């Protein structure tokens, strides 16, 4: 009797499931999507209800051929692609390609790869849910239309060398980052003075300890000094003590977005790395499905967590909790991300261990008791004025879920809450108790702007705005980074003075200290290209860039998934006004300049502007219409068209710099299309990131010339100067370089490369051009 064929998305999953199902099933992988829209002419028949034209991409032809062959010999074909809309669409595409009826073909879904879950799914098969397929198809078609129609508008209106693109979600994500950057640039820090008194009292052991009490902030140094002066000769007395119980409650189990956020904060993982590792854990049967917006736990999972908590920590640490989904579209049947086996505290694979342990701890904590606190607030009266100081302390009476897990916070939350840090314990105090003052200080503090986004806080913002879904967050961030609209980098802080007024023994001492401010790590910065494109799209495609509009589109996808809306009608409602905007913009919009005037060059009397050039942001002296050719200088990586000053711009025109003569030839440094370089004797050597072209010295540059020249000579086999053709040695053998193109030498010519004539080399180039080598496409990772 022929085996049944079960098709899953990934080969790792196939092996695990085949072991579970035994001899009745052969389990094969389709490696993710097997069909996609045609690349030519959009791949959508606009006039025929937006009917998509699908093809099997070249890199999937072999997989499809193999699946067709096995399907013919199999008893019955079952589909077990992932449990989201993408997975449902893949199942439908498999039906189309393999000639299966989606109305009768058995389709199974499971949230975890365990024996009970797989067997339960096999016992309760369903058919392909065409509503989910249509929702995925609507997203794919809409995003293709936007990209296909919008990107050429940018090509026409902006002279850029790189391939510009726009997308429905990616462009809005760039807008979020761009707006935050402009908020930061426009922000003016306001100073105030934090009042803090340090007092001594005896702790429970009788030992003298120091604790602090805070006063009302003062808005100027003068007011702060007046307040401190008013405390001369003062007595300090405890006027009131309030002791209140408090509690902390655990967070819900992980959804896709909260896992991405917490893995970024606690582990320093990028969003894409988190998803890659989570997929490995899922496919090896260690966790439930990693793309979910549900915080729900099954009754079985809650029971397993309860048993583990009671056995590991004791009964008093357990508290069963049901969490409610905030997102109305979240499916209750789906589960949060959790371990499949609660008694597995860790995993062997070092690569995924830290992420697994994070998931395990968060899941356990969600079913544990509250942490119980005791909060004490003491008021301290000042005898010489009407002000009071406040001392606060917090004692943890029962750790509860904190025994396992403590949630981290984003920079945004810390800015909103004010000072960062935990309250400590207060010594025992009584009303009427006199407190000796050690010192009182007024410390200058500065207001802070909202911080730049991290990958994690951007995901949080997208989710808050209702933009995107669990499957789209990671690809969106990857796309905007890859396109050059956003970059992830560190920012060095700057030194800033701050004032301290110190009251001690009825004498005020004025101090000035320094702090490092504005330092940021792994933050998302909009590039000049991102800012310019965002402004253009906001001006001419307001709907596409509108947060509420984009969120409403997501809601309409959800309605299609629920069978409440026809997908082609949804696309039609979007496309008709959008197409008019495209036509109007092509006809009427001016070319994008992204230009900012900075001042006048004193030497020539010509305008100095910062603007977008063909190869990126630059500053320019003069105009293209002037008789004399304009001068150009490329901006540094840390500079921006919007913030560069006149002086900083003029400094850029110090290049090229002549550092002196080496071997009787000038050594100059400059910045070109591909970055900083040294020029010497007609040759060019990349400077790399180690040296700054504005500060590098002759003594640093000369050894670079010697070293790189030697390396170049070692690589060079032969040079035809006039034709600008070189024969070079590479890691894979000899090759021909003509301009920016490389041509591989045939095997039979490699040993005699040094003897090749110009005519023979030209013949090889023509042969390769006529018969280019076939590229072996890389296999796409399954989603």
From TrEMBL:
Domain Toprim: 3-113
Enzyme Commission number, as recorded: 5.6.2.1
Region (Interaction with DNA): 165-170
Catalytic activity: ATP-independent breakage of single-stranded DNA, followed by passage and rejoining
Main function: Releases the supercoiling and torsional tension of DNA, which is introduced during the DNA replication and transcription, by transiently cleaving and rejoining one strand of the DNA duplex. Introduces a single-strand break via transesterification at a target site in duplex DNA. The scissile phosphodiester is attacked by the catalytic tyrosine of the enzyme, resulting in the formation of a DNA-(5'-phosphotyrosyl)-enzyme intermediate and the expulsion of a 3'-OH DNA strand. The free DNA strand then undergoes passage around the unbroken strand, thus removing DNA supercoils.
Subunit structure: Monomer.
Annotated family: Belongs to the type IA topoisomerase family.
Name the UniProt record assigns to this protein: DNA topoisomerase 1
GN (gene name): topA
